[in-house]
Amino acid sequence: MFKHLITSSIVSLLCSATLLAQDTNVELSLEQSMQLAHNGNKSLKIATKEIEWAKNEHQRINSFWLPSINATGAYMHMSNKIEVKQPLSDYTNPAKDYIHSIYPGEQIISSALDKLGSQSLNVPLVPQNFTTIDANLTLPLFTGGKRIYAGRISKQMISVANVNKEQIDAGVQILLVENYYGLRLGNRIVDVKEKAYESLNTHYQNALKLEENGMINKAERLFVKVNLDEAKRELEAARKDLDITQKSFKVLIKMETEDTISPVSSLFINDSVPSLSYFKGLIKDNNYMVKQMKIQKDIAGNQLKIANAAYVPNIALLGKQTVYANGIERNLLPRTFIGAGFTWNIFDGFNREKKIKQARIAQQILDIESEKIIDDNELGIDKLYNQMQNALDNITTLTTTIEMSKELLRIRKLAYQEGMSTSTEVVDAEVLLSKVQIASLLAYYEYDVALINLLSVCGIPQSFDQYSNNGKTEQYIFNR
After folding, report:
1. DSSP state of 88
2. Of 81, 228, 381, 458, whose CA is between 20 and 30 Å from 418?
3. 93 and 182 together in one domain
4. What pLDDT, in 10s, does the model give residues 317-327?
5. Is the per-residue pLDDT at 295 higher than 50?
6. What is the Cβ-side half-sphere exposure of residue 261, based on CA atoms within 13 angstroms?
7. Claim: this prediction has a pTM higher than 0.70
8. Strands 260-263 and 336-343: what pairing?
9. What is the b/e burial string over 36-57, where b = at least 16 CB atoms within 10 angstroms of the residue's CB?
10. First-to-last C-alpha distance (Å) of the chain
């Protein structure tokens, strides 16, 4: 709720700024930027819909536990009606034999019986046209466990979709951290170059006065001028790079405004980080690809069980209720019946055996892929952890260098004012300090980017905030 209020306030601020058509400076923390990036990310929206689809699929699979009720209807016209024909000779011939046994040679009655026996008795059963409307019920009672295993698979698909969303979310966090701190880095580099330019400009103004008083020659003043122009060129290039970074960051957080985004969350480092073995220990339980692979292995196991269940019969409860019938009598076809039946596939051309073999091969493939994923991620952790350590080592070294460079610049400026130092020495000290400051900022940035990537590989990108809150910021770099 708190995050939602923060996001709403930011959007309101941006909208009001747009309406006023003012080019203002909007300060955004890393957390606020993260919310904006999440709200407009289409990949996360797709992942959310995939979770919704998986849940609906799970409900669809569970519907197989319920009875199936359907209605069927038909109007039939047959080429002839269905009837029973019974020849009367079956009755007249015994009668003739009986009469002849009593009155041998009798002709009158025998002749009448012969005529009658040549006829047939027709009893109609179903007319040529008839209509039926029936309600049918089917309830599976036993399927060999297929419904149970299919339900488990559909539930595991929800877990796959959730892990996929977590992985996409981690990717968004990586991209946001890289761009947010890239913008912060660009701002700080511009600050460094602005201060260097201002310092050189002040030094150049002093050089002009000293040249007028004959304390330095023209060559020294020109040397300061050349370096001042170079500092101005580098400052303009840094501002152009910052403008490009600004535009890229606005695209990432879906901000269509002319306002200048000012990142307020500082670059940071942590003096100490957990051991390499700690991060590697997180892979088996937290890495997104490893978790997905575990779920896939469970799915493959249930698919194998479904394949084995094909050897047992399916038993179902059957029922039928004739709702309407025209032309078919009740004594010929009952209106209601209920019963049970089964189907048992005795031989299917070894199709079941092949499916079982395929399911087992799929399990073996997943086992190998799981081992490969763990090995690849461990190599990735080694690389990222080394990047962090290198950045920390560089910062440790550069911290001392910065202090020495600041002191060197201070001493040379004082010496220059007393005529005991040349312009070249002052300019060199100024350029050296700027380079060391920028190198320190780059080391901070490399550390932060390596950290978010490392935490994402370990499946805990949310802990980045904890490292940030406990870290040491880059502020000390700019204290002169």
Report:
1. T
2. 228
3. no
4. 999 999 998 88
5. yes
6. 34
7. yes
8. unpaired
9. bbbeebeebeebeebbeebeeb
10. 42
